[in-house]
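Thread: nicotinamide-adenine-dinucleotide complex, take 2
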Amino acid sequence: MTARMYYDNDADPRALAGQTVAIIGYGSQGHAHALNLHESGVNVVVGLAAGSKSRAIAAEAGLRVMDVADAVKAADAVMILVPDTAQKAVYDAEVGPNLKPGALLLFAHGFNIHFGRIDPAPGIDVGMVAPKGPGHLVRTVFQAGGGVPALFAVHRDATGTARARTLAYARAIGGTRAGVLETTFKEETETDLFGEQSVLCGGTSALVKMAFETLVEAGYQPELAYFETMHELKLIVDLMYRGGLNFMRFSVSDTAEWGDYVSGPRIINESTRGIMRQVLHEIQDGTFANAWIEENETGRHEFERLRAQDRDHQIEQVGADLRAQMAFLNPVVVTAGQAQAAAGKPGAH
Ligand code: NAD
Ligand code: MG
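Output below.
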């Protein structure tokens, strides 16, 4: 089965003509959506809390800023771009009670709808436009004339216009320049959580740390172990990004390719597959979501403990020193959750 892709010609901007779009939150995704929509000719208002530091930044960028409740009252479509863990409280207090009848409520990730945390009133359209890339790229790629691919979904079409409006939104942020793919809130939520846990964040971090520890424990120099198990990973991933595993294997030596085939499946093995299936099962049946919601509602103590424990791992200390000597990398130092460019440039996300 080949998925249908939607491009600019499949998304009619007139579906949002004359409508006002409220962007709630001005972080990684929020600033990118608001500015891209604005430059695409959409009437945008940014909704932020009275004390938010982002208010001045959004206003300086030429955007209209209001309190969240007022932005929602003024809007025909409302995109929720506050952190997933904060969405329910913001929705219940300020968004839900102020939505116009027939408004389109949009998300960039399906978590809160799929797990029933947010339950919009019956007459409200509910859709999703989820860029498959970080917010700063959604902005800079758009400015360069391109777009970041995205997923879209329609959870509820109460007005008969939800699908057209969701696609028009995807076009206005640049998504249909690269191609957007239809999904459901269930599929997007489950695959997004599984991807970040198994490969993108969880699996990769654990693999890198364990390989580093194995070399250091065996008496090899930590600096060398850092280059071998973390620094060089980017070079390999760049090859995969351009031409898949085949291009990576074409580029590396035959010895590396042979080791890939004979040792890779011993490291990531059938027992790993069993754990992967278990992780997916716990995402599907809500076990993961319930535990994470509970963790947030009880002060995030375990989250902060795990964060602190990994922050000072030897690979982080060794790596920071080595990267500081490689200014061309535009290295970033992260302390207690704050990212700062080592060279004093504005931090990357
Ligand atoms: P973020 O953490 O970068 O920014 C959230 C913004 O919301 C903050 O900058 C602030 O303006 C506001 N905010 C923070 N806490 C708040 C609170 N308690 N009440 C009200 N406002 C608050 O968030 P993000 O990473 O842009 O994520 C927004 C949505 O986009 C999420 O649903 C996320 O899953 C989704 N998403 C993010 C990315 C990404 O690259 N970061 C990619 C795809 C989808
Ligand atoms: Mg993701």
